[in-house]
Every structure is written in structure tokens, then in C-alpha cells.
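---------- Forwarded message ----------

FYI, see the HD domain protein record below. Original note from H. follows.
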Amino acid sequence: MYFFTGLLGKAYQHIFKQILEDVLNRQELMIQLSDLVVSNGYFFHHAVNVATIAAVIGVAKGYRTEQLFDLGIGALLFDIGMTQIPEELWRKKGFLTPEERTILHQHTVLGFNMLKDQDNISLASAYCALQHHERYDGSGYPRGIKGKGMHEYAKIVAIADVFDALISARYHRKQYSPHEAAEYLSAAGNILFDYELIKTFLSHVAIYPVATTVVLNTGYTGVVAKVFPEFPLRPIVRIIQDPYGEELKSPYEIDLRKEMNVTIVKAI
């Protein structure tokens, strides 16, 4: 199998270099989430998406080139252990038995063991495979370590993995919208994930690009007029339609940073 050859590191470095160049060429690192959602060939495309998100966070944190490459390699290969898990198990719809779950959880250790002795792959990159299911509060696996015990690259990959998984079609659950996934990450800050890294990610991704049509919890419909990197879930919205579907004769703007009781419930 190709994954066991010594060419693995160099091949994926080449892929990540292209991803990194793409991210760096985007103004202010703002990327359209639609570019991240790829449904075919799930594991490969998911890995590319995760690496893209990880690159955004790494660049935003000011990582040096060598750090970005180590992070990128780890992000591309974090789920490599799944190639050693029976396909019928990870494709299974519905609940897993305790025995099946134990087998599935082994992909973290299997992936780490596949990467740690590979040429051109650092130990830090391999930790992304081992620790991407660990959680900030110690509730993850395989070792149940807490946030400070995780390598930062693995913390970043954990966020990217969950975000992309949520907005992608899966066998066992519905596909979530980007704003629903962002809300989930925000709510899980310093519980499941490092909140500072979540803020870094969300402040550099356009959850609601300007001109996006949105529906508010008040029933009114509007168009995103202005976004704020520091408040990605709370843009200025120009209200154009009432809850009954009638166009407003005098549209007006509402700043969701100030109207904390008003939230976006759906992007159209």
C-alpha cells in the first residue's frame, strides 16, 4: 500500500504546499466555506479540507513555514489510521456496539504508529493522528488527556476535523450548515476544544459573507451588510422582509453585536 512507502511525506508536502499557497493568496485569509465542502471520496477530501482549515489557523497564529508544513502534514494524514479499520464499520449507519466503538477508536493509535517512524514526517505531525479525538476537558480518547497535555497542532486539527465533518454529508446523521457548526464550536469552547483557537478560526472564515440572505429568530429576513472578524456570528443585517413574507417599504439595518437577543437561525 502506498501509505507505507517512504514517499508518503514528500507527496503530502507537495499537496499541502498548494493548499498553503491558496490560503496565503486570499485577502485577509477570508475563505468561502463553500470551497471547503467536498462530498466525494470522503476521507481524502475531508483531509484536504481539514488541512485547509488548519492552515488558516496556523497562518493566523503566525506560524513559521516549517511549523505550517508540520501542521499541514499532520492535518492531511490525521485520519490515516482509518485505512486499517474495516470499511463496513466506519460506513455503518446507526449506533455502534461497544465492541465496534473500541475497534473504531483504535484508528488514532494505528495512525500514530504508521506515521511516527516515517521519513519526512515529524513527531509533531504524528501527534495529530494520535490526539485529534482528545478533548479539552479530558473526555476524549485514546488517553483521555486534557487540553494542556495535547499538542497544539492536534488541538487545531480537532477543531478542523469536527467543523468539516459537521458541514459534510455523513452516513449516520444530517448535514449541518456552516453557521450551525460555528455555533457548536463556540458553545464547546474550553469544554471540548481550545476556545482561543476557535476564536482564531472563526475570525478568519466568512461564516456569513456579505450579501448572504439570512433569517433571524424574530422571523424577519435580511441581507448581511457588514461582517466583523472579531464577531463572525454577529454581522450587521439589512432587514428587507417581515415574518409574513412581505417586503419592507423602508428596509433598515440591525447590528447583531448590539442586539444580543436577536440571532441568525438560517442562511438562505
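H. also flagged this: Strands lie at 31-32, 205-206, 213-216, 221-226, 236-241, 247-255, 264-267.
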